[in-house]
Write a structure and sequence with these properties.
Number of strands: 0
Largest sheet: none
Number of helices: 3
Shape: elongated
Helix content: 40-55%
Oligomer: single chain
C-alpha cells in the first residue's frame, strides 16, 4: 500500500486577526485533496474483498488496480463527482471572514 500524500496547503503565517485573504481557494483545494485520499482508501478497502475470482491475480494486477483506483480518485475529486469536497468546503467556510464566504 502506498503512503498517503500530505495535503499541500501554502504555509503562510496565520494572521492574528483570523484567516488570510485567499483562504477560500486553499480550503477548496484541501477539501478536494481530502476527498481524493478518502476515495483511494475506500477503493483499497473494497478491493480487499475476495469473491473467489483468482483468474487475474498477482502483484502486477494488484499494482495496476492500485494505480487505477488512485487515478479514479483524483479524477472524481477534481470533477466533484461525489460531492464530498463541496460539503467539506461549505461546512468549513463558515469559519472564514465574511468577504471570503
Amino acid at each position: 500500500m502506498s503512503a498517503l500524500p500530505a495535503l499541500s496547503i501554502a504555509s503562510a503565517p496565520a494572521s492574528p486577526d483570523g484567516p488570510r485573504v485567499g483562504d477560500r481557494k486553499q480550503l477548496a483545494d484541501a477539501a478536494k485533496q481530502f476527498e481524493a485520499i478518502f476515495l483511494r482508501r475506500m477503493l483499497a478497502e473494497a478491493r480487499k474483498t475476495n469473491f473467489g475470482n483468482d483468474l487475474l491475480s498477482g502483484e502486477g494486477m494488484t499494482t495496476f488496480r492500485q494505480m487505477q483506483d488512485e487515478n479514479f480518485a483524483e479524477i472524481a475529486s477534481r470533477t466533484g463527482a461525489f460531492g464530498l469536497a463541496a460539503m467539506i468546503e461549505a461546512q468549513l467556510s463558515r469559519h472564514l471572514p465574511q468577504g471570503e464566504r
